[in-house]
Each structure stands twice: as C-alpha cells, then as structure tokens.
Amino acid sequence: MITVLLALGVGGIAQAAIVLDDSVVRLEQAELRLSHEVHPPSASTVAQTVQLPDTWPAKRYAIGDNGWYRFYVSRAQVPDAIWGIYIPRLTMNAAVYFNDKLLGDGGSFAEPLARNWARPLYFDIPSSLWRDGENRIDIRLRSYPGSGLLGSVLIGPQALLQPRYEWVYFFQVQLSAGLFLATLGVSVFAFGLWRKRPGDSQYLWFAVAAFAWSLLSSNNFIRHIPMPSPAWEWLMFSSIAWWSTALGLFVHRMLGKHYPLIDSALVAYAVLAMVLYAVAGEYLALVAAVWMLGSVLIGGYLVWRLLSVRGSLLRMPHDSARRVLSSPQQIALLAMGIAMVLMAGVHDWLVQNGFIGADREYGHHLIHYSAALLILFIAWHLIQRFISALNESEQLNAELEARVAANRRELEDNYLHLQTLDQARAVAGERERIYRDLHDDVGAKLLSLVYRAGDRGSADLARSALQDLRDVVSHTQHEQLTLEEALADWHVECDQRLGAAHIQLDWRQADTLPERILSQQEVVNLGRILREAISNAMQHAKPQRVVVNIDYVLAHLVIELRDDGVGRAQGTWKPGRGLRNMELRAGELGGALRWQDVEPQGCSVQCRIPLS
Questions:
Q1: Which of 101, 398, 435, 557 is most exposed, with the fewest beta carbons within 10 Å of its own?
Q2: Residue 447: is its pLDDT beyond 60?
Q3: Do 201 and 300 have their domain in common?
Q4: Is the domain of 252 the same as that of 324?
Q5: What domain range is 155 assigned to?
Q6: If we measure between CA atoms, which residue out of 210, 205, 202, 211 comes closest to residue 326?
Q7: In this predicted structure, what is the pLDDT of residue 547?
C-alpha cells in the first residue's frame, strides 16, 4: 500500500511539473483593495500594488479580512480555445470574477468560512465573456488573521491548465483523503488490539496517535467544517500536540522502557497546548507557531532515544536482547521514519510562517504524507508482531493440548491401574479370608490325621497335604521369594517328610547359585515338582537314602532327586497322573523333566528350568 501511495504521489508531482508554454500567462502583480464588498469594487476605491505571492501582514487585518485583487489581461482577439484561471495556492477562500462575471468560488464566505488552504482552484472562462483588448480579473480573498495568502495566478488554455490543476488537486486533496481513511482505520485496529490486551498500553497510545493525526489530516480535504472556525482551529492545533505526545508514549512502551517524569511532561505538553490554544483568541496562529516547536523537540528526543536503545541492544548479549519488544533493525527504521517526519514538520513550519516556499504550487505541506507513511509502517510492524505472537500462541496451545492429552492418557492408565489394584486388593482380601479358614479348619483336621494315622504311608500323605495347604497359604501372601529362601523352605520340608519315614536326606546345594527372585508361579510349580518326586520315592522305591542336588548350569536351574530304592521293573512301570502333572509344571516354566535309572539300583528325576 505504501508503495502504491508513493508511486501515485510521485506521478502526480511529475505531471504537475510539466513546463507550460508561452500561451499561459502568470499573473504576479495586482492591485489590492481592502473592502468588505461582495462584488468587485469600483476603480475609485483606494488600491495598492502588491507582488504575488502576497502574504498578509498583521496591519491589514486592522482594516479587514476581505480583499480584492485586480489583474488586467490584454488580448488582441478572443481566444479560439477555452481558457481557464488556475490558482495553485491561497488561504482561505476565494471567488473569481472575469469582466464582472462570477466564474466560481471555493465555497462559503460566511462563517464558518470554506477552507481552501491546501486546495487549488480552477475555473473555465466562457468564450462569451472575452473582450477584444483589455480584460479584467477580480479575485476576492477572505482569510483569518495570520493566515492570508494568495499565490501566483495562471491564465491560459484549458488543455494545459486543467490537467495540471487535477494532478495538484489529487496530490493535495484526494491523496490526503485516502491517507486519512488509512490512518483512521489503523487507529480503530490498534484500539481493538488494546481492548483485547488492555495491559499492553502501547496499542492504546498508538491508537491515540493515529487518531490525532487522522483529525489533523482531515483539515487538508474538508472544505466545509461542521463547527465554528475558532473551534476547528483549536481542534487542529491540539491534534498536533496530542500526536506528538501519544507518539512519544508509544515509543517508550514499544521499547519496554519506563520514564515516569518524561511521560508526565509529554502529557502536560499536550494538555497545556489545549489550554493555550483555547485562550489565544486572535493570536491563535502566533501561539501555535511558537508552541509547535515543542513537537519538533519531542521528535528530536524520540530519534535520540531510539538510536540510544538500538546501540544498547547491539552491545547486549543475544539472549538478553531477545527480551526487548523490537529488534535493532526495526528500531533503526522507526528512528529513520520519525526523523523523516521531523524534517517534514520543520519544512512545513517554515512554509506556514512565510520563511520559504510561499508560492510553491504543490508539496508546500509534506508532513501529512510522511506522518501517514510512518503510521502505516508502525501498523505493519505491530501486525507482524501480533501475527508472530498469534503463531507462537497457537504453537503453545498445540503443545499444551498434546501435553494435556498425554496427561489425560496417563491419568486414564493410572485410573485403570488403580482399578486393577483395587480389584487385586479385593481378591487378595477374599483369598486371605479363605486361606485363614482353610488354615484354621482344614489345616487343623489334617494335623489331626497326621497324629492319628495308623501307618506310615497315611501319615505321610496327611503330612504332604498339610504342607501343600501351608504352601498355598504362605506363598500367596508373599507374591515373590528369592531362590535362596525357596530352597531353604524346600530343604526343611524334605527333611521333615523323609525324616518321619526314617529315610536319610542328602541335600547338596551348589555355591554358585544366582541371586534370583522367583515368581509365585515358579515357587509353587518347583515346590510341587520336588514334593511329588519325594512322594513317588517314598511310595514306590522304598529307599534308605535320597539325594537332592541343586545346581546352576548354563543359565538353567537344575534340581535332581536320586534314590537307592528298588527302581523300576522292566515293562511294569507306567507314568501316572503325578508324573504328568510334574511334566506340565516344568513346561509352564519353560523347562523339561527327565527320569532315568541309576546304578547299582534306584531311580533319578531331573528338572531343568531357565533362569535369566
């Protein structure tokens, strides 16, 4: 957008700068008659000769604020083409007469006076109004104290003057209107950002600065104001003060700096300006010309502050510099933009007070364009930051959602685990109750059978059943046992059973056994295999001696039981339920079971299970 505006403005200037040929007459000397007449005064009215551009001195306003400029144009014959009168610059309003006939005016001469201070005027001259020889042009000018001005007047062919007028009108009026809409839109947008982020006051002060400048820029293209002229002038000059103040407060907050005294001084400058302009009366233009120098000082201060902060950032470690709201490059561009506006403001102040460029056809006020471009640049910068913050926020939200989802899944898993634990505790509690009942009831009865058994086999059977019951009760209370603890339990059990049957136990346990924790399944199955092997030896082999050998070979636990009993008769031995159960238990543990005869007599059973 900025590029388009610049291209249009430069194009307009280039068109307006077309050199006019000799057919165009530039009127630079006139007779001035100070009169409140609404029609061209008679030749008898007192006149003075003035050179254009003519800036009204203060003493003229003692006579009045309405004057008539008279020019004479001689033509040997009526022009063949349509001619026109072009007034590039005037303040404040004018009406043009040709041979006592009104060609047109810039609007109302009554209060509030039509404002044409930045607007060129052009009027066609009907061919019927021309006279052979001398023709008279009268221009009525009315202004306010301290601002009266009439620049050079051009008269010539319409084909040359009207295009020139239209381009200057575009550059001075229409482009200003477009920039007004742009800056006003920026102000509304920044104010909306501040409403969303009330803690970030830089958006508020930028909105105030853009709005103040929008008010001021409306003075370029609004011809008929909606209030009395003194009130309008007060509003325009006050807008300049608030533009400078709000821009300074915005820069402080954009840099993340806090200067309470300077901020208070800036606000006091704007408030005091409003008071001074309200009481200045007819000296408003003079008071404003002096007081606006404060805005120049504020602009210079902002450029210095920005360059100082930029220098500090360049010397700062990268991690610390990242915490500043703007990069050194952005700060440098902003400093350049404010410096551009500052130079344009100084230029316009000199033009406004008659020091330079009083007769400049176009571009006599440049700050309206430079300030608008600065506002658009700042808006672009804030939008970029806002988009970056929005993207970062969306990324953080996505990460937060992913973390929340992960935490939710973890909570669900924990909930399921707690449910499982609750169920397991409930089952364990019920199982514990059953085991207590078995121990207190069935266990007592089995113990009675041990003591009342009539023979050794029945007593051993009852004793084995009692041991099974004790295993179930004790091992389920302890889900896991170490290998050493399990072997100790099995040793005691084997010694008790074989000792009751008057059979010698030879327990052999290797010293290289691993420190291994056995699961409940491993404890129960290995214990049952060993118990069944003892039962088979006692029941079928009738041994005098039983050897139990525990070893660890190639990551396998090897439990071997060997007796010196009667062994097996050829063709008479068949595996029963006990042997099949032993094989199934070994298979559940990933191992194997093997039976074989030993010399000179007896039998051996070996169980091998893997231990990681």
A1: 398
A2: no
A3: yes
A4: yes
A5: 2-169
A6: 202
A7: 95
In sequence order, the 6+-apart residues with CB closer than 8 A to the CB of 181 are none
Tell me which residue of 4, 3, 8, 2 sits closest to 376, measured CA to CA: 2
452-470 mean pLDDT:
64
Start-end of H helices in 439-569: 444-452, 456-477, 483-500, 520-536
CATH number (domain holding residue 366): 1.20.1070
Number of independent structural domains in the chain:
3
What is the model's pLDDT at position 461? Answer: 64
Asked if residue 297 belongs to a domain, the reply is yes
Rounded CA gap, 140 and 32, in Å? 10
Please say whether the beta carbons of 400 and 364 come within 8 A.
no
Spatial distance between the Cα atoms of 498 and 530, rounded to a whole number of angstroms = 13
Q: Tell me the average pLDDT of the chain.
A: 85
Same domain, 296 and 307: yes
Burial of 551 (0-12, 13-18, 19+ CB in 10 A): middle
Same domain, 73 and 181: no
Strand partners, 413: none
Q: Does residue 147 sit in the same domain as residue 275? A: no
DSSP 295: H
- What tokens does 355 get? 């020091």
Residue 65 sits at φ, ψ, to 5 deg, of -110, 15
At 233-285, the pLDDT tens digits run 999 999 999 999 999 999 999 888 889 999 999 999 999 999 999 999 888 88
- Give percent above pLDDT 70 in the chain: 83
- Output the pLDDT for position 16: 42
- Residue 592 amino acid letter: A
- Please check whether residues 337 and 237 belong to one and the same domain: yes
Bridge partners (DSSP) listed for residue 141: 67, 94
Predicted local confidence at residue 363, as pLDDT:
59
HEC string for 331-390: HHHHHHHHHHHHHHHHHHHHHHCCCCCCCCCCCCCCHHHHHHHHHHHHHHHHHHHHHHHH
